[in-house]
Amino acid sequence: MHAMSPTEIFLLAMLLIFSVPYAVWRLGRTDYWAPLVVVQIVGGILLGPGVLGALYPDYYAFVFTPQTIGSLNGIAWWAVMMFVWVAGIELDVEEAWRRRGETGVTAGLALAVPLVTGSIAALLMLRYDGWRGPEGATWQVVLGIGMACAVTALPILVLFMEKLEILRQPLGQRVLRYASLDDIAIWGVLALILLDWERVGRQGGFLIGFALATILIRRLLARVPESDRWYISLIWLAGCGFAADWAGLHFMVGAFLSGAVLDAKWFDRERIDQFRATILLTVMPVFFLSTGLKTQWGVGGITVFAAAALLLIASVGGKLAGIGLAGRILGWKKGEASIIGWLLQTKALIMIIFVNILLDKKIITNETFTALLLMAIASTMLTIPAVAPRLKRLPELLRRTH
Question: What is the pTM of this model?
Answer without folding.
Answer: 0.77
